[in-house]
Amino acid sequence: MASKTFRRMIMTASLCAGTLAAPQAKAIPAFAAQTGEPCSACHIGFPQLTAYGRLFKLQGYVAGGHTPTFKNLAAMIQAGYTYLGKSVPGGLAPDYPDNNAFSAQQISLFYGGALYAPIGLGAFVQGTYDGVAHQFHWDNLDIRLARPAEAFNMPLYYGFTFNNNPGVTDLWNTPPAWGYPYIADELGVGNIAGVQLSSLGQSVYGAGAYAALNITPSNMLYAEMDLYEPLPNHTAYALGVGPEVPISGVIPYWRIALQHSWGASSLEVGALGLIDNPYPAGYMHGPSDQIVDVGLDSQFQWITLNHALSLQALYVHETQHWDASYALGQASNPTDRLDEVTLTASYLYKQWLGFTESYTGITGNADPALYAPAPVTGSANGKPNTTSFTTELDYYPWNDGGPAFFPWANAKLFVENTYYPVFNGLAHNYDGYGRNASGNDVVFAGIWLVF
To answer: pTM for this one?
Structure first.
């Protein structure tokens, strides 16, 4: 029965893909080496997944593998040059100039693929040296046990996951763990606020279960539930992500999505969310606050041999209940809200030239205690509102196969330009110290190399 279900799932994936087929969760050669497929079989310009890339991840990273080999090891370098609209007094980061800086911002080692394929056990494990912070830390982790089955005479794949980032398990390219920007400039000026979904990665660990039901060959229903806890303080420091993020109880994360596929196209619509109960700053016990994120997302893909189009949309509404922080004077309001919208369109021509345009809008009510004036990073009017537009051009020299000495290697040469009409609440003098939003406009150009 299981083998019959597996064959039906493979047929469904082929229909969804419309063209090529292969694996992935992030663009690492370990998966390409295990399956024997080029990176272009799995990605619309990495790290975005194709239909078969989603199936490979769903099935536990085991396709084409059996047990660990040296081919399951890989490495990655992200390096680039940063230019801001206005210099940052004191430097872009410790040991960096105030503008015009080069950084090897991320050097990572990976294990990717089967741990024991006969039972569907596989993993994606990443450790990273942060070249800006000059520190090694554990990075994304997703260990899976996945099995085929049937439910109501329909093919079903279910599994269990141990991971360290809400959303890192996702099959689509919309949640913050895998959403745009795919290469964030660590030397750029970060805005004052973001939703909780994007802030917990690597500071928590948890386990969960997921299932994907093929209602018809063209329609798949996906559901997932995970529970997370904060890393203990000594463990967080040992893994390079200390200090501990103080949280009361566990954090439930949930995800549901429906995918419809036809010809060379697929459309996903879904929802996701979490509930976090953090302690106020400086406290490890006692009363806690509550942050609730609820999001809606969608992804459309059209993939042919010469053209690939991918559209993503994510809206997250966050409700912040400052039951403890308000009493301590750390928040000006007992309840605040934050809304974040991200819209991204990507096009890839013949697997070697890519173009991406993305919009992000963050809005929320004024809270002077949370969003206070400060040079460069603060908010003069106490609002978190930030709007950005990013244009990215990419060149993939090895998307259909790397050099002869390492055919699974891949690279992305990129140029990103991000423009901020509004930053931390205002267009002009947003921080209360004379800096304008345009001062944070940034050009980031470099290479993303995996081998």
So the answer is: 0.91
